[in-house]
């Protein structure tokens, strides 16, 4: 359910674009993002910083798209988001000496383990630091590549092709990256979690 909610504004954007146009789709994307923020707030009592950042980018670039009737602004949204994420991984790792991929995976694995075993999470999940470092670099490079790839598709192909790429291409690339991450850590997971 949470994964569907993350992609819901994108799915609605795609549907409205196909039936109306890019400007209506952009407006609906902004409204869907507001609804998504409200849902997160009522679900957990707070809104994660990343959701605020993604909403702000959608609001600013989407608003400019509608105001100036120029789809190029909304085309930059994915590039800006993926570039920020790549930059966060880079700066957090090499300036602040923190591996955000490691923190995310530890939190996710702990959450999954607690759901499966209740409070009896006696088996620690031990993944070598070198694996976390490899995954951090993989995600950093992938996000930077996708950021540039979005612009390449936006400026070298039709608007229809870009919208299809934004929805299906970016989602597919993300899915493959998640799959590669799981494959890389799979052998370190306890039997109960695998």
TrEMBL record:
Membrane topology recorded in Swiss-Prot or TrEMBL: Multi-pass membrane protein
One of the Pfam families matching this protein, by short name: IspA
Family from the record: Belongs to the YciB family.
A GO CC term attached to the entry: plasma membrane
InterPro entries: YciB
Record's function text: Plays a role in cell envelope biogenesis, maintenance of cell envelope integrity and membrane homeostasis.
Keyword Lipid metabolism: no
Originating species: Pseudoalteromonas byunsanensis
Keyword terms: Cell inner membrane, Cell membrane, Membrane, Transmembrane, Transmembrane helix
UniProt name for this protein: Inner membrane-spanning protein YciB
Localisation: Cell inner membrane
Annotated TM spans: 51-68, 74-96, 137-155, 167-186
């Amino acid at each position: 359910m949470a994964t569907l909610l993350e992609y819901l504004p994108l799915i609605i954007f795609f549907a409205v674009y196909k039936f109306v146009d890019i400007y209506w789709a952009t407006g609906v994307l902004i409204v869907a993002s507001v609804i998504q923020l409200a849902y997160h707030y009522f679900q957990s009592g707070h809104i994660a910083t990343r959701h605020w950042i993604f909403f702000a980018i959608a609001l600013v670039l989407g608003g400019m798209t509608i105001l100036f009737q120029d789809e190029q602004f909304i085309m930059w949204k994915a590039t800006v988001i993926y570039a920020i994420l790549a930059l966060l991984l880079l700066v957090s790792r090499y300036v602040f000496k923190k591996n955000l991929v490691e923190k995310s995976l530890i939190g996710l694995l702990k959450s999954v383990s607690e759901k499966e075993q209740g409070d009896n999470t006696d088996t620690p999940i031990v993944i070598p630091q070198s694996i976390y470092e490899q995954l951090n670099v993989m995600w950093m490079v992938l996000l930077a590549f996708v950021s540039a790839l979005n612009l390449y598709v936006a400026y070298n192909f039709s608007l229809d092709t870009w919208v299809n790429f934004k929805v299906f291409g970016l989602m597919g690339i993300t899915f493959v990256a998640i799959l590669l991450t799981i494959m890389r850590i799979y052998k370190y997971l306890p039997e109960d979690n695998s």
